[in-house]
Amino acid sequence: MGIHPTTGKTIIAKNGRFGPYVTELLAEGEELPKGQKPRTASLFKSMDPATVDLDTAVALLDLPRVVGKDPESDAEITAQNGRYGPYLKKGTDTRTLPTEDAIFSIDLAGALELLAQPKYGARKAASALKEFDADPVSGKPVKVKDGRFGPYVTDGETNATIPRGDSVEDITFERATELLAIKRAKGPAKKKTPARKAAAKKKPATKKPAAKKPIAAKPRAERTPEQKAATAAKRAATIAAKKAAAAATAAGE
Q1: In this structure, how many other beta carbons lie within 10 angstroms of the beta carbon of residue 96?
Q2: For residue 28, is it within any domain?
Q3: Of 166, 186, 206, which residue sits at a domain end?
Q4: Domain that holds residue 92
Q5: Is residue 116 within 8 Å of residue 108, measured between CB atoms?
Q6: Distance, CA of 249 to CA of 144 (rounded, Å)
Q7: Rounded to two decimals, what is the model's pTM?
Q8: pLDDT on residue 177
Q9: 95 and 140 part of one domain
Q10: Would you say residue 92 has pLDDT above 80?
Q11: Range in 33-37, 160-164, 190-194 with the lowest mean pLDDT
Q12: Are residue 138 and residue 86 in the same domain, yes or no?
C-alpha cells in the first residue's frame, strides 16, 4: 500500500480470521522488543481492502484519534474502535458512536454533545434507530436499537445482536426477522451451574490400644506356728534321708 510517513514502515492489507486489516511490516533483520507486535488495525465494515488507500490505512494505524480537549476539565477526548464497536473516551467516561465512520468525522462540538447525554439505558440513543412492521411470529413491531454492546433488533420479547458483518443502515425487515428467528431457535441462554465441590472424605479415627493395667501382687497369707514347725520337720527328715543313703553307698564300695 505504501510507506508510513512517520514510522517509515511498509503498510499492507490482509485478510485475517476476524476480517480484513492493515499492518506494518518489519524491515529485514528487524526485531521488536519481547512481547511487542507490529501495529495492526481492522478495516471498517464500510471499507474494501482492495480499494482502501494509504491515507486511510495510516489513519487506522494511528488510532485512537484525538478529537480535542474538554474546555471545562481540559481532559483529552479520543475516538476509537473497541471490542463492542466505535466509541468516544474522556478519562474513564465513554459513549458509543453511531457508526465506525464517525471515528474520523465527529468534531469536538459533536463529541461534547454526545458525552453530555446520559449513559446507556437512560440516553436518547436507546430509542429506535429503525422501525419495521410487525414480526410474523410475535405480531409485535420490529425495531433496531443501540444497546450497551452495540446495535440489536428486537420485537419487545426477543433481542438479537446485529452481527459485525451487517450495518444498521443496511438492515432490512427480512434480515431483522431472520435474526430474531435464529435467536428464538437457539432458546434462552443457559446459566452455568457452578460445579459442586466433592465433600472431603473424613479419615476414620485411629483407636489407641487400651493401656494394660499392672496386675496387683496378691499378698501372702501369714503362716501359723504349727505350719512353720511342720515345714521345718519335713526339711530335717529329707536331709537325714539323704545322709543315710549317702552312707549306705559308701559302705557298699
Answers
A1: 22
A2: yes
A3: 186
A4: 65-116
A5: no
A6: 140
A7: 0.47
A8: 93
A9: no
A10: yes
A11: 190-194
A12: no
pLDDT of residue 193: 62
Q: Both 57 and 73 in a single domain?
A: no
On whether the CB atoms of residues 127 and 118 are closer than 8 A, the answer is no
Whether 86 contacts 108, CB under 8 Å: no
Q: How far apart, in whole angstroms, are the C-alpha atoms of residue 214 and residue 212? A: 6
Q: Write down which residue in 164, 186, 208 finishes a domain.
A: 186
Whether the CB-CB separation of 45 and 164 falls below 8 Å is answered with yes
Note the pLDDT tens digit of each residue in 176-201: 999 999 998 887 666 666 666 666 66
Length in residues, the chain: 253
